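Comment thread on ticket #2218

A.B. wrote:
> Attaching the input chain for the structure job we discussed in standup.
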Amino acid sequence: MILVNTDYISGKEFEMLGMVKGSVVWSKNVGKDIMSGLKTFVGGEITGYTEMMNEARAISTKRMSQEAESLGADAVVNIRYATSSILNGTSEVICYGTAVKFK
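C.D. wrote:
> Ran it. Output below, let me know if you need it in another format.
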C-alpha cells in the first residue's frame, strides 16, 4: 500500500475509490500523566506525550490503510491527520485520505 500526502503519485494514473479514515482515542497511564504534569514546571519535551501521539498516529494510519485495502485500493493519496483532546491525558487522532486504484 502506497501512502502519500500529495494528490498524485508520480508516473501513476488512478481512479478514486472514496475517502478512507482511521481513528483512535489514546491515553497514557496515570503515573506517566503525573510525571508529565511535573515536567511543565521546568519546560522541555514531554516525551510521554510524544510517544503517545506517535503510537496513536501509527494506529490510526494502520486502520485507514486497512479500510483502503478492504475497498481494493492500491494507495491512499492526500493523507491528512487531525487531533483533538478528549480528556486530560487523552487524545483522538484521525487519519484520512482518498483511496485510489491504479489503472
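A.B. wrote:
> Thanks. Noting for the ticket: The domain at 2-102 is CATH 3.30.110.70 (Translation Initiation Factor IF3).
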